């Protein structure tokens, strides 16, 4: 049911973080979406946090930026998302969210993975309505 809703209702893709083979790439569905000119909503934490804080970023954001350096990565803070779409629920609850958009980011040519993820995380935290 979850996969159906994400695929058919939201035109979304799920990332399977367990590689079926060493050669498989968990980000392949997102790379294909970018190749097709689609936009992505990407949660760089790799999961939803039931709390108000921000979890550490996974490396997928870096690998997407590395594979598609021409794509702008726009940080978006979605306030109240953990209440509207609680982890484990299939459908959103009828509550309000507010979104804040930051300046687009791109991977700098000499930037390490850690530097890029830190800069991306800081850009997202700067959009939070209250300090976390």
From TrEMBL:
Pathway: Lipid metabolism. PANTHER family: 1-ACYL-SN-GLYCEROL-3-PHOSPHATE ACYLTRANSFERASE. The lineage of its organism: Bacteria, Pseudomonadati, Pseudomonadota, Gammaproteobacteria, Pseudomonadales. Keywords: Acyltransferase, Transferase. It comes from the Bacteria. One of its GO terms (biological process) is phosphatidic acid biosynthetic process. Coiled coil: none annotated. Residues 7-78 form the Phospholipid/glycerol acyltransferase domain. It comes from Pseudomonas syringae pv. maculicola. This is Putative Acyltransferase. Pfam families: Acyltransferase (PF01553). One of its GO terms (molecular function) is 1-acylglycerol-3-phosphate O-acyltransferase activity.
């Amino acid at each position: 049911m979850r996969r159906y809703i994400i695929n058919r209702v939201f035109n979304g893709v799920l990332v399977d973080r367990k590689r079926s083979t060493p050669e498989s790439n968990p980000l392949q569905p997102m790379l294909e979406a970018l190749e097709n000119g689609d936009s992505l909503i990407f949660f760089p934490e790799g999961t939803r946090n039931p709390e108000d804080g921000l979890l550490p970023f996974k490396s997928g954001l870096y690998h997407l930026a590395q594979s598609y350096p021409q794509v702008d990565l726009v940080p978006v803070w979605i306030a109240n998302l953990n209440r509207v779409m609680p982890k484990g629920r299939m459908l959103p609850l009828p509550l309000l969210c507010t979104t804040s958009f930051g300046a687009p980011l791109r991977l700098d040519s000499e930037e390490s993975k850690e530097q890029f993820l830190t800069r991306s995380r800081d850009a997202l935290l700067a959009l939070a309505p209250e300090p976390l």
